[in-house]
From TrEMBL:
GO terms for biological process: UDP-N-acetylglucosamine metabolic process. It comes from Aquirufa antheringensis. This is UDP-N-acetylglucosamine 2-epimerase (Hydrolyzing). NCBIfam families: NeuC_NnaA. InterPro entries: UDP-GlcNAc_Epase, UDP_GlcNAc_Epimerase_2_dom, WecB-like. One of its GO terms (molecular function) is hydrolase activity, hydrolyzing O-glycosyl compounds. Keywords: Glycosidase, Hydrolase. Transmembrane segments: none annotated. The keyword Ribonucleoprotein does not apply.
Length: 370
């Protein structure tokens, strides 16, 4: 069975990894990686090199991302990605193509496949993020797909509502957490030395723009910087940089200013990779920001998360989430609360022990129909 996997960023590739290992190891599947988006951007860490190091037989590379991140540039990148994939789908045929999440470039690649009858399987559909335009892209991808692998039953219900029936809808948990119970962390001293982190407690920080409220992002980015400057008096800050969203450069500018003002208290990382990122999460004191990994993965590492703003609003939350508005005083208060709570010992609502197996088994069962 010939399988294509669309990956457009460091984030979705890390989520895919448990499934990719299963597909690569099983002779039933002929696996091809289709890499595009920020994977091919040197500004975002040129993460195609990580994919190449993982030893896939076929890796397609499609470059279509503009360097600017204003609204016009994002719309142009969307159109360019669609054009590039029109040529790609004309020349490349698959029994099934995996797509994941809600990125604009992922939506563009999928939309281009509709006239060609490409059979898409969507992972992480049915979720709601009211503070991000990705909410629209996610639902577009869902409607264009024939198979759906959601992270929770409530998301499967949303997918059923969107497509009008429950055919091909499966609840499998979050794929990124597959095998988390046996995940091998990087040894602590090696991790700290690798990234030159001082031997002290640190917060893991990731902020992305709110792409619904684009005009407010300059104000939000300043509030972020003011809050982090105060938090840096208590904790070292390990900051993973924003992805290629509208107005992402505004946050990068404020993070750069923060680093300039507090060079001994801030580490900026363009791309950790999954092993380093999970190790960073485990060794951190808490998470701060508005990234989906805080919502989906942090509970499995016993971490409290200060979730800022409305980018993740509407998403299912475990009890480790402490919500705060984009106000520096509110962010600081939420961080203080998280530090008092210390270690989270509740359940992760996104966890299922066998996500990758559930997906591959469903594909095999449906192979004749496909």
């Amino acid at each position: 069975m010939k399988i294509g996997v669309l990956t457009s960023s460091r984030a979705d590739y890390g989520i895919y990894l448990p499934l990719l290992l299963k597909l690569k190891a099983d002779p039933f599947f002929e696996l091809e990686i289709i890499a595009f988006g920020t994977h091919l951007s040197k500004f975002h860490g040129f993460t195609i090199t990580e994919i190449e190091q993982n030893g896939y037989n076929v890796i397609h590379k499609i470059s279509s991302l503009l360097s600017n991140d204003d609204e016009q540039s994002i719309a142009t990148s969307y159109g360019l990605t669609t054009l590039k994939f029109a040529d790609f789908w004309q020349s490349n045929k698959y029994d099934l193509v995996f797509c994941l999440g809600d990125r604009f470039e992922m939506s563009a690649a999928v939309q281009a496949g509709i006239p060609f009858g490409v059979k898409f399987a969507h992972i992480h559909g049915g979720e709601t993020t009211l503070g991000a335009i990705d909410n629209i892209y996610r639902h577009q991808i869902t409607i264009a797909s024939i198979l759906h692998f959601s992270a929770a039953s409530s998301f499967s219900e949303k997918i059923t509502e969107l497509i009008g029936n429950s055919n091909g809808v499966h609840t499998v948990g979050s794929l990124s957490l597959d095998g988390i119970e046996s995940f091998k962390l990087i040894e602590k001293s090696l991790f700290y030395d690798r990234f030159k982190i001082p031997y002290q407690e640190f917060a893991l920080v990731t902020f992305h723009p709110e792409t619904i409220a684009t005009k407010l992002n300059k104000e939000y980015a300043i509030e972020m910087r003011l809050a982090l400057a105060q938090i840096a008096k208590k904790l070292f800050l390990v900051i993973t940089m924003p992805n290629a969203d509208t107005m992402g450069s505004v946050y990068r500018k404020e993070i750069a200013k923060l680093k300039e003002e507090h060079p001994e208290k801030v580490l900026c990382v363009e791309n950790f990779g999954k092993e380093n990122y999970f190790s960073a999460m485990y060794y951190s004191k808490l998470l701060i920001g508005n990234t989906s990994s805080g919502i989906i993965e942090a509970a499995s590492f016993g971490k409290y998360v200060v979730n800022v703003g409305e980018r993740q609003k509407g998403r299912l939350q475990s009890d480790n989430i402490i919500n705060a508005s984009f106000n520096y005083q509110n962010i600081i208060k939420a961080v203080d609360k998280a530090l008092v709570n210390n270690i989270f010992d509740g359940i992760n609502k996104y966890y299922n022990k066998h996500s990758a197996d559930l997906i591959t088994n469903q594909i095999k069962q449906l192979n004749e129909i496909l």
